[in-house]
Specification:
The complex is a heterodimer.
Chain A: H1 10-33, E1 37-40, E2 47-51, H2 57-84, H3 87-119, H4 128-148, H5 153-167, H6 170-180, H7 199-251
Antiparallel strand pairs in A: 1-2
Helix pairs in contact in A: 1-7, 2-3, 2-5, 2-7, 3-4, 3-5, 3-7, 4-5, 4-6
Chain B: H1 4-35
The chains are: A mainly alpha, B mainly alpha.
């Protein structure tokens, strides 16, 4: 029987191809089809708005949504691990936590790049949404560091699961921060949930969310399979070491 | 188009980061697949260790 050469399967290849095609369509819509955000002051007639910087939001907002989703998956899988104590749940938590940390970093970076032309600042330390998102990123960075600190990955599973369950509590705080502390944020209240945007802008944003979910799913799937193989390899290494010790014992 | 540098930086950095991470996953997966017996990596019908 020949070994498979990658962690890919027919399903993951279809998912990957769909993600790539979706991403190309998203770029075309975001850059060349949708209009820039230009509004006119009712009294002076002066132009204002985000202009073409709004095109960054077709990436930034979907990325924020998949970050929440990945961390919620991580927390559910962590709870699953604490109940079932099986490697499947731990691998899923690890995969979702790692992918979520990557997308969270990209949320912070794209937000900062968007903020410079629109808010005239790269970063605002007093902004509750920015700070709570940064805290989320740091918490999950700590989660990954904790996992990396153990030689035996199985020993990291329980403390990591507890950290994930605590860290995910930051998500509702981020989500509600613009409502609870509206004077302490540059962010506007949700335009998506109240459907204040429409037509092609809304369609492109929805497509961005769909493509981001597809990409996140592909990444989590492959990261899960890598974690699975790492686990099998570790188990086999332990078995081999025990066998060698036994043989040495018999030799004595 | 206004703010082209910001747009390219945001979209470019994000695309590059995800692409590099995906390539790293595929490479690591290929390395591990070569070392681990195939019955453990026949997605997802592993005969053993199926703890889910």
């Amino acid at each position: 029987m020949t070994s498979p050469i990658t962690t890919a399967s027919k399903g993951s290849k279809i998912l990957g191809m769909t993600s790539i095609i979706g991403f190309v369509v998203l770029v075309l819509l975001a850059f060349f089809v949708t209009d820039p955000d230009i509004r006119f002051h009712p009294e002076t007639g002066e132009e204002f708005g985000q202009f073409d910087a709004v095109r960054l939001l077709y990436l930034h907002v979907p990325m924020a949504i998949v970050t929440y989703l990945a961390f919620v998956i991580c927390a559910i899988a962590s709870a699953g691990y604490l109940v079932r104590r099986t490697f499947w749940w731990d691998s899923m938590a690890h995969a979702a936590g790692e992918v979520g940390t990557l997308t969270c970093a990209l949320v912070l970076i794209t937000g900062s790049i968007w903020g410079r032309p629109v808010w005239n600042t790269w970063w605002e330390w007093g902004d509750v949404r920015l700070m709570s998102t940064l805290i989320l990123f740091l918490l999950f960075l700590g989660y990954l560091a904790l996992r990396g600190a153990f030689v035996n990955p199985q020993r990291a599973a329980r403390p990591a699961a507890i950290v994930a369950l605590i860290a995910v509590l930051d998500i509702p705080l981020i989500n509600r921060s613009v409502e609870w502390w509206e004077n302490r944020t540059l962010h506007q209240k949700s335009t998506l949930s109240e459907l204040k945007i429409e037509d092609l802008t809304l369609f492109t944003l929805m497509l961005g969310i769909l493509v981001s979910v597809l990409v996140m799913s592909w990444l989590i799937l492959h990261r899960f399979r890598v974690a699975w193989l790492e686990h099998i390899e570790f188990e086999q290494g332990v078995k081999t070491a025990i066998e060698e010790r036994r043989q040495v014992g018999h030799g004595d | 188009m206004t703010h082209l540098g910001y747009l390219l930086a945001g979209w470019g950095l994000s695309s590059l980061a995800i692409l590099l991470y995906a390539v790293r996953l595929l490479k690591r997966g290929a390395q591990l697949s070569a070392r681990v017996p195939s019955e453990y990596a026949r997605w997802m019908s592993s005969p053993k260790q199926n703890g889910g």
